[in-house]
Amino acid sequence: MSRWSGFIRVFLLTLIMLTPLTVQADNGNNNNAPVSEQAVKLDPKVELTKMQKVLDKIKQQVSAESSETKLRALNELTLQLSTDADTLAQALEPQKAQLQTQLGVLGPAPKPDSGVRETAEVTSKRKKLTSQMLQLDDQIKQAEAIKSGAINLSTQIVNLRRNAFKTQLALNAGSILGTKFWAPLFNAPQEDSSRISDFVNELKATAALCWEPDWRFGTILWMVAGLLIASFGRRYMEQFLAWVGIHKLPEGRLRRSFLAAAVALTTLATLVIASGCFEMAFTRREEVSDDVRNFAELLVRLSVLCGLIAGLGRAFLSTRRPSWRLPSISDPVALVLKPFPPLTAALVFVFQAIESFNISANVSITKTVFAYGLTALLIGWTALSISFRSNRVRRQMIQQGETPEARSTLVGLIQMFITLVGIAILASLIIGYVTLARFLSYELVWFGIVFGSFYILSQLVVDGCEALFSTHNRSGKRIQASLNIDERYLAQAASLLSGLGKTLLVIMAAMALLNGTFNSATPIELVQKLIGFWGGKGLESLDIVPAHVVNALICLIVGIYILRALRRWLESDFLPKTSLDIGMRVSLITLMSNIGYVLVILLTLSIMGLQWNKLAWIVSALSVGIGFGLQEIVKNFISGLILLTERPVKVGDLVSISGIEGDIRRINVRATEIQLSDKSTVIVPNSQLISQNVRNATMGNAQGVATITLTFPLDIDPTQVRQLLLDVYSENERILENPEPAVSFKDLTPSGITLSVTGNVSTPRLVSGAKSDLLFDILTRLRKEGIALSAPQTMVIERRNANTSMSDPAEGGQI
After folding, report:
1. Which long-range contacts (CB under 8 A, 24 or more apart) does 373-376 make?
2. Which residues touch 480 (CB under 8 Å, ≥6 apart)?
3. Contact 5, 18 (CB under 8 A)
4. DSSP 8-state assignment for residue 787
5. Torsion of CA 780, 782, 783, 787, to 10 degrees
6. What number of other Cβ atoms are within 10 A of residue 51's Cβ?
7. Would you report the helix, strand and coil content of the chain in percent, each value rounded to 5?
8. What's the rounded Cα separation, in Å, for the pair 35 and 139?
9. For residue 103, how far is the Cα from the chain centroid?
10. Stated pTM of the model
């Protein structure tokens, strides 16, 4: 539970500080109290002796202890001892520095042959300071040794708890369909009855203590305060925050995300504060036993969990304000799911309270397993009910002609995950693995809390950044006026901050999923059993641990998800708000993706535990493969990196290579896609774009040139024809005015006069269309003015009889 409270304090910034669990290591001796500065003034030697004794006692208890609860308490005591030793060592450092300064003032002792003599007082003072310095050094080293020993002992305790939990997971306690599972209801062991009776008596004694005449008024006051906060506090606090969101926040999506976060936090805060009031009502007396006090503290911590479940459920469904609902959930589905969040919170609270009661009363394993089974049964049944009832409502809406909400692939995967886990829980209970079913139940609840918190907080971060830098709001206008910057830079800042915020939330969610469990073990260790067959000597030689493989797989999945999300964010949100052209954007996105995938792969291999000095056989195989068949792939990969960095060609350029002319659509790792004029695509290896001559028609904002060459008869008026061609070019809207169109005299031959007219267009892609329009206009104008083009001369030779010579052209030959 300490992991739960620790994550919640960081992740949701709750206002309630949770009291850590304290355990007495010695009978009545509070040796685990924090070491303050006043303790250092007493006697560091005595404190170190006490710490060493406490550490030795913990080691003795750990060596003979197998209870998970006792091991947890000893682990917390060990961590506290490590903190105390570190505090003591840090408190001794200033004294050591002071002694060094005093020794520096006295200086080193004079040499015997130097002829310098010092007084006996100075010599005695130096010896005394030196002795104190050596004593402080020994004490600091002893404190550091105790700290190191406590940390190592804590690691060993954690390993013992994990091994014990894995043993419990593998233990078949009997199916819930058998009589053995339900036996504690009818034939409870005598030991359990006596232990439960003793603990109930302690609870009654606690209630009697707080109801004594001198304490009765305070008890009533605390209980009334808790009831008022639980009943009216949440309602009025939520209404106040809703009023703040409507009247103080700018219009837009920020109001919805703020209200959702406010609903979740108010539900959490009121439940935690109310449970804290009830705890103070019954446990504020010093005479309360430690078992009862620890039980009350566990209930307060449990209220944090239940407050999160109920608050996130109310925030997601938002049945009172459907228009402010964050996820796309239809009203019928939201209404049918409304009872499940408080029901789940109640189930978790009740059965976790029962488990805490069993732990405090130290009941037998059969009673504990029975509580585990009931917990898993009800939570698994609730999970299946959520999935089945939501699907039934959607089917009913379709039958009635209504359109249900459009669900994304991620929502479908989440619902499928809930259904499969619910089935797995019930199946585990049926075959007898009760502890495994309980573990899956609470993991499902924890996953829901993490994903729900991540969704609401990510929406709040994105909407908050957009509202803060939007020029439609007061804050954005003030920032723009203060910095005198363009609006697009504010949009870039909003996108950048929101992207950083979501990245941090993803990292926090991943850490929470890996570390925040109800038990000392994590899901990784559960999956380790499924891949235990990998633990052969081949993997041992590579220092691969199955748990590390699972960690690496999770890292790979999370890394790829982050890279794809970052790529979508750059492509659709951030880069379009910059002044970069589309080719530069695509190049940056592709380069970032390639570097990101390389880093993710390297990080994955590092987490897996691969040591490159033991992968000589892999390197050798790769060398042979590159030498024979992979050299082209490697060459194209390196060429692709060169294209993305030097950018001789980029996405959107019109290029010609080996008789192929088209637009570059994508530069991949191995090849480049070139789209031709007929919309077909040619795949060109990247190495060809580096090694061959490539014509880039659009590089450097190149203009297109529309040139038409015409041949006219010798009897035309060249000046008239020249002006006619210039007029046609000048009137065409695609021809640029600067540089101006020009007509040049190309050639004069017996067949006619050859003139060439040239004009520029804005891009080479417009040359073909411009030439077509110009030719239509030129031919129309020439026909209207009666000017003909020079006809090509042909010569026809007719073969006649042998006795007939070639005739004169006027008689038979035609030219």
Report:
1. 373/173, 373/176, 373/181, 373/429, 373/434, 373/437, 373/438, 375/347, 375/351, 375/438, 375/441, 375/442, 376/425, 376/428, 376/429, 376/434, 376/437, 376/438, 376/440, 376/441
2. 471, 487, 490
3. yes
4. -
5. -170
6. 24
7. 70, 5, 25
8. 15
9. 54
10. 0.56
pLDDT single digits (tens) 550-564: 677 777 888 888 888
Query: Which residue matches tokens 């939007």?
Result: 470
Nearest to 12 by CA among 274, 235, 312: 312
CA pair distance 680, 678, nearest whole angstrom: 6
* Ramachandran angles phi, psi of 749, nearest 5°: -130, 165
d(CA 520, CA 442): 13
| 175-191 pLDDT, tens digit each | 888 777 777 777 766 66
Q: Which fold has domain 615-702?
A: SH3 type barrels. (2.30.30)
Secondary structure string (H, E, C) spanning 101-140: HHHHHHCCCCCHHHCCCCCHHHHHHHHHHHHHHHHHHHHH
Residues 6+ apart with CB under 8 A from 167: none
What tokens were used for 230?
């639980």
Residue 627: its H or E element: none
Which pair of structure tokens corresponds to residue 714? 């010798």
Q: Degrees (nearest 5) of the Cα angle 608, 560, 620?
A: 45
The pLDDT assigned to 423 comes to 92
pLDDT band, residue 26 (cuts 50/70/90): very low
Nearest C-alpha neighbor of 75 from the set 547, 525, 521, 520 = 520
Domain ranges for the chain, please list them: 31-107+120-170, 190-530, 531-610, 615-702, 704-785
Please give the full DSSP string across 477-546, using - where no structure is assigned: HHHHHHHT--HHHHHHHHHHHHHHHHHHHHHHHHHHHHH--SSSS-HHHHHHHHTGGG-SHHHHHTT--H
Which of the residue ranges 448-457, 661-670, 790-799 would you say has the lowest mean pLDDT?
Answer: 790-799
User: Of 608, 680, 597, 694, whose CA–CA distance to 643 is shortest?
Assistant: 694
Contact (CB, 8 A) for 306 and 346: yes
* Whole-number Å distance between alpha carbons of 437 and 426: 7
Highest CATH level, class, for 704-785: alpha beta
| Joined tokens for residue 472 | 């439609």
Of 749, 756, 762, nearest to 709 (Cα)?
Answer: 756
Give the angle subtended at the CA of 514 by the CAs of 509 and 517, to the nearest 5°. 100
Classified as helix, coil or strand, 755 is strand
* CB-based contact 361:197 (threshold 8 Å): no
Structure tokens at 661: 């002319």
Classify residue 598 by burial, with Cβ atoms within 10 Å: 0-12, 13-18, 19+: exposed
**What is the bridge-based pairing of β-strands 752-761 and 742-749?**
antiparallel
SS3 category, 603: helix
